TrEMBL record:
Keywords: Acyltransferase, Transferase. The lineage of its organism: Bacteria, Bacillati, Actinomycetota, Actinomycetes, Micrococcales. The keyword Cytoplasm does not apply. Residues 58-177 form the Phospholipid/glycerol acyltransferase domain. CDD domains: LPLAT_AGPAT-like (cd07989). It comes from Microbacterium terregens. This is Lysophospholipid acyltransferase family protein. It comes from the Bacteria. Signal peptide: none annotated. The keyword Acyltransferase applies.
Amino acid sequence: MTSAEIPEPREADSPDQAAVRQMGATYGFGRFVVAPLARLIYRPRVEGKANVPKTGPVIFASNHLSFIDSIAIPIAAPRPVHFLAKSSYFDGPGMAGWFSREFFTAIGAVPVKRGAGQAALDALDQQRQLLDGGSAVALYPEGTRSLDGRLYKGRTGVAFLALQTGAPVVPVGLIGTDLVMPVGARFPSMTPRVTVRFGEPLDLAHHGAADSGKARRLATDDIMAAIHALSGQELANAYNEAPAHSPIERIRQVLPHERR
């Protein structure tokens, strides 16, 4: 083989580039074109980026105030973030269906079928597979959006996933997303600024195994305390009993809930 035939060594992909390559061109477009444009328009205040591990599995556990929370976190995070979205966003007909599919793919959403029982377990398994592959996922321990702005008690599904996979949990405090796009609004407002705060990673392993109800409850309480410190919300001291809107929120119907 002559020197001309020896292939030039290719520089290894960064974790961010590798994730984009796996998700495809649409996600790459969203990550490197749409996200910077959104940051330019909305000028979010992002704090604590250095707290986010650059590689390896990580769970972003956030408060939940608005539909755009699942857009704000991927835009603000220094690495690709994935979350579950109902499969109907990906399989609609016509131009509207195409736009919905492309949009949710661009922001890192992973389709999953809605429902309790096996569907909820399948959703949990999808999150586990993403973490096993070294990806970052975003979840809402409250289960569904807070309609009154208060921070509700956390469900134990996020802690279960963290204890089972060993992934660190980065708490996230979102401020102002409910003003940009209140519940019921069809389009976001251009005026209010959003603040996204990333807290220090939580290692929850000391609480015990994932199959321990006490360990899940204590780990969940740690996660919610960290979110509260970042968001500054009033505590509801109750569970948000609004109907769940996605399978991952319905995990609470499958896993036992330790209440106290």
